């Protein structure tokens, strides 16, 4: 495969830095070009538009995460798969904090916004990897989860992303131990049961 031109990579890097700092709507094409030291025709040559740049950025930079999640969700038993999903997501966020911070903001962008619509397929792919784990468990276990796999998958993904958001603000860590703790919290609750007086 032919390597990507350095200018193309640099444009993606500068766009990510700016989008992460100011949001997609808060950054113009001219600002990206100025920071990358190129003219608008260069950006349009590689990406066609600001939206094309965003779509390329998300597709190329998130692909390793989604591929790793799809492998992780195939693990058994169920709790091992959950730990693998959390650990994989934590590791990616730890290695790509700027990208993951921006990716998180797109979950909550206005529904009809250009950025939210560009991110939708990536959010869906992320969710489907989690949902596949819960769906397989539902089918195999018969533990009364019938029809609830999507809600449970969304809840678990929300817990994982919440932990990442806290960690990106320096209030938590993103490692194997915190992944296991997050799964334990999801499966067993955040606090141990209170003991009764006189027990």
Automatic annotation (TrEMBL):
SUPFAM superfamilies: Homeodomain-like (SSF46689), Tetracyclin repressor-like, C-terminal domain (SSF48498). It comes from the Bacteria. One of its GO terms (molecular function) is transcription cis-regulatory region binding. Keywords: DNA-binding, Transcription, Transcription regulation. Signal peptide: none annotated. Pfam families: TetR_C_33, TetR_N. This is Transcriptional regulator BetI. The lineage of its organism: Bacteria, Pseudomonadati, Pseudomonadota, Alphaproteobacteria, Hyphomicrobiales. Residues 28-47 bind DNA. InterPro entries: Homeodomain-like_sf (IPR009057), HTH-type_TetR-like_transc_reg (IPR050109), HTH_TetR (IPR001647), MT1864/Rv1816-like_C (IPR025996), Tet_transcr_reg_TetR-rel_C_sf (IPR036271). It comes from Martelella mediterranea DSM 17316. Residues 5-65 form the HTH tetR-type domain.
């Amino acid at each position: 495969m032919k390597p990507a031109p350095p200018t193309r990579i640099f444009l993606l890097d500068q766009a990510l830095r700016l989008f992460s700092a100011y949001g997609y709507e808060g950054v113009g094409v001219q600002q990206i070009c100025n920071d990358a030291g190129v003219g608008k025709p260069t950006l349009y040559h590689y990406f066609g538009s600001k939206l094309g740049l965003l779509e390329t950025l998300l597709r190329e930079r998130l692909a390793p995460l989604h591929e790793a999640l799809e492998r992780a969700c195939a693990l058994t038993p169920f709790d091992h798969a959950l730990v693998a999903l959390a650990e994989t997501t934590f590791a990616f966020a730890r290695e790509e904090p700027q990208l993951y911070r921006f990716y998180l903001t797109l979950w909550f962008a206005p529904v009809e916004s250009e950025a939210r619509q560009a991110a939708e397929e990536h959010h869906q792919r992320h969710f489907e990897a989690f949902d596949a784990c819960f769906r397989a468990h539902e089918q195999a276990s018969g533990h009364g989860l019938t029809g609830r796999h999507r809600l449970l998958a969304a809840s678990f993904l929300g817990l994982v992303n919440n932990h990442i958001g806290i960690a990106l603000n320096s209030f938590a860590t993103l490692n194997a131990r915190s992944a296991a703790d997050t799964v334990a919290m999801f499966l067993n609750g955040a606090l141990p049961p209170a003991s009764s007086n006189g027990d």
